[in-house]
Structure formats: C-alpha cells, structure tokens
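Attaching the record inline, Q. Sequence:
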Amino acid sequence: MATKPEPANEIKVDPNALYLEEVFTDRRVGTIRRMTPVNKDGARDQARAVLYVGETQVLTPAGALPIGFEIGAGSLEEAAEKFGLLAREAIERTVKELQEMRRQAASQIVVPQGPLPPVGSGGKIQMP
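Structure, as predicted:
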C-alpha cells in the first residue's frame, strides 16, 4: 500500500524543539512561564537554556489585551524580580504600536483628487 506524500503546509510539531512548560502566578499581576528544553523522550536537554516568558494583560475598551514578553533570567526568582520592569516596557511598546496602527489606518482615508465641485452641486446621480 502506497503512503501519501506529506503536504508542504502540514502542521507539525518539531520533536527537536520541545519544551516542558510550567506556569507560575501570583494570581494578581500576571504569570511567568518556565520553558525547560527537553529531548524527544522528555528528558532535560542540557544543550539548550531554560527560557522565562512573562505574561500580563491590560484592560482596553475592547476588552483584555494580553501582553507577552521574554525575561532574560537564570532562575525563577530573578525572573520574578525583573517581571515588573519588563511588563511595563512591553505595555508601553504595545501602546506605541497600537497608536502607530491607528495613525496608519487614519491616513488611509481616500481623499478625492482634483478640484472639488461647488457646494450644493450634488453628485452624478440625476433624478428624473
């Protein structure tokens, strides 16, 4: 029996880039995820460094906006100490990006070229 070739856009987990994910939270400000690299069999991969990722959220008129950021730390304690400053920086960066997106969206308003018709002249629609 012939096997089907894999499609080029198939969703697939890379077995050489697996992490064990642990979540720590104070249940108030946010969470810290400790990403421990593991081998295919689930054993700790000593060749790769442990990663820390911070997550918090800000309330907007549209609802809660999640904010994620990497924390360069060697331990959970260090990650917790750096969390506040890095969260504030990530929030400020996100606000600036949102303002820039809003500015770009506003600049996409189409403005007619050439002279404007006299006021009250109406458009091209003619009534019988």
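Helices lie at 76-106. The longest strand covers residues 51-60.

More tomorrow.
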